[in-house]
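Pasting as-is:
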Amino acid sequence: MLELLSDPTVWVAFGTLTVLEIVLGIDNIVFISVLVSRLPKEQADQARKLGLALALIFRILLLLVLSWIIGLNADVITLFGQGFSWKDLILLGGGLFLIYKATHEMHNEIEEPPAENLAKQAGAAFSSIIIQIIIIDMVFSIDSIITAVGMAQQVEVMIAAVIVAVGVMFIASGPIASFVARHPT
């Protein structure tokens, strides 16, 4: 492990992966900000922090099982002459989920529910938003995790880059959430 600290190529890989994770995480922060904006301020901050903490754990787990996901290249279904592997279906499902969430969130911004329903919905929405943050983070992080596996050979370097990037996301998410709340368009 100590030999990693003295290897300049490891530091270059770590720096590159960290910047890549941060840049690719910006869309994630915006999506999280939109999701938590429907909660009361105290719950929104708590949901954002808890969601990002759980997202970090799931990103690390995703990193550890990514080699398995990448290996799912064998076609399991053929539609219209096109073969689809489990990896394709996972990516397709994630993409469809993001399209659904984006459409749903835009609809909610246009047609806001009456104010009296917001208090009742807040309790149920909190756990739902946490789950959505985790799913969205996993979908958004698949591309960066695949890139990380291609760039770095050591899983320790990849995990360290993910931890630093999520730390930056954690710090930046508050101001970005405030900005999105003030300027929803």
